[in-house]
Design a protein that fits this description.
This is DUF1877 family protein. By secondary structure, this protein is an alpha+beta fold. Helix content is 47%, strand content 18%. α2 packs across α5, α4 packs across α6 and α5 crosses α6. The longest helix has 20 residues.
Length: 144
Amino acid sequence: MSTIVRFFAAPDDKSASRVLRTGPRRVFESLPFGNFDPEEAVLEWESLLTDVSFEELIAAGEPHLIAGKDDDGPVVFAFSPLLCTALAEAGRSELKDAAAAWFLRQEGSRRVFNTELADLILSDVAALVRKARDQGRSVYCWVG
């Protein structure tokens, strides 16, 4: 089964939650990707970039679901402020290292991307976070 993932920026949780049924592409500029678990990915990214363990992030309720139910339907979740800060402030080499580590952590699972694509995804998401911060927006992910 194919998973559609769209990272996007919105003014607030309420605005972001309105795209639950249709996805953000008609309302907000978004980055489309697919075939990976974005909830697990953002936890991995935050863990890699902040040295907070994956388990601690889960215990803290990350990522924060703002719309939908985490079953088979679409969901919208918010990036944590800590992750946004880490992505916005990360340099190119730090992002590249995090992407490589993210890819390696997928060992044993069915990988649908390579290190180059992992780097592209993380770099594009970091650019989205920087742009969102400049505009006073928050970053979200829609999964459908």
